[in-house]
Specification:
The complex is a heterodimer of chains A (about 110) and B (about 110). Chain A has about 110 residues and is an all-beta fold. Chain A has no helices and eleven strands. The radius of gyration of chain A is 13 Å and the shape is globular. The chains are: A mainly beta (about 110), B mainly beta (about 110). Chains A and B meet through β4, β5, β9 and β10 of A and β4, β5, β9 and β10 of B.
Chain lengths: ~110, ~110
């Protein structure tokens, strides 16, 4: 069974650009969560999606957005990139909402903003 | 609100020695606690979880953790360190069982000395 797949693995952008990251959950998993990991702030929850609807949102500015498709794949978008957005973005999937103890994480997308 | 504090951002132990990674939590409700491990260039892997069933929780790779309400602690231990244990370890808390929104500690990097 394939794990959580995140693409691309590495990304380099410049300030002001926008970026889209992709996450394919484990087959059969319908809930997808996103986390940002930085050396200074650690791991921080971005948002969670189920049935193409955002269920939960962390304390991030509106530049950070996401969506989920009918096949449970999810994308997150960051507009008007800032240097501080450089981070490892982790996606996690679980079978259903409320099964967070069964979260499985992908290897992440390393975003560098120059 | 929930939070966790991990004492010691870096811990070094000799191969074969006891591993002790400290985590203290703060929660206004009975917490659900987790330990995750992150190997270089990889996502997070669940080591173990506390969901109020038993105070001593056994996880994968020989790790265990004990929930102590009186000390608001959930320290991670392993009797004998192995070189393969070198990684970063994160303690996390969620507000209720199954919640995908986890609050993570800042992490402890474990180094094993041959």
């Amino acid at each position: 069974k394939a794990g959580v797949t995140q693409t691309p693995r590495y990304l380099i952008k410049t300030r002001g650009q926008q970026v889209t990251l992709s996450c394919s959950p484990i087959s059969g998993h319908r809930s997808v969560s996103w986390y940002q990991q930085t050396p200074g702030q650690g791991l921080q929850f971005l948002f969670e999606y189920f049935s193409e609807t955002q269920r939960n949102k962390g304390n991030f500015p509106g530049r950070f957005s996401g969506r989920q498709f009918s096949n449970s794949r999810s994308e997150m978008n960051v507009s008007t990139l800032e240097l501080g957005d450089s981070a490892l973005y982790l996606c996690a999937s679980s079978p259903l909402p409320g099964s967070g103890e069964k979260l499985f994480f992908g290897s992440g997308t390393q975003l560098s903003v120059l | 609100a929930q939070s966790v504090t991990q004492l010691g951002s870096h811990v070094s132990v000799s191969e074969g020695a006891l591993v002790l990674l400290r985590c203290n939590y703060s929660s206004s409700v009975p917490p659900y606690l987790f330990w995750y491990v992150q190997y270089p260039n990889q996502g997070l892997q669940l080591l173990l979880k506390y969901t109020s069933a038993a105070t001593l929780v056994k996880g994968i790779n020989g790790f265990e953790a004990e929930f102590k309400k009186s000390e608001t602690s959930f320290h991670l231990t392993k009797p004998s360190a192995h070189m393969s244990d070198a990684a970063e370890y994160f303690c996390a808390v969620s507000a209720y069982f199954g919640n995908e929104k986890l609050t993570f500690g800042t992490g402890t990097r474990l180094t094993i000395i041959p």
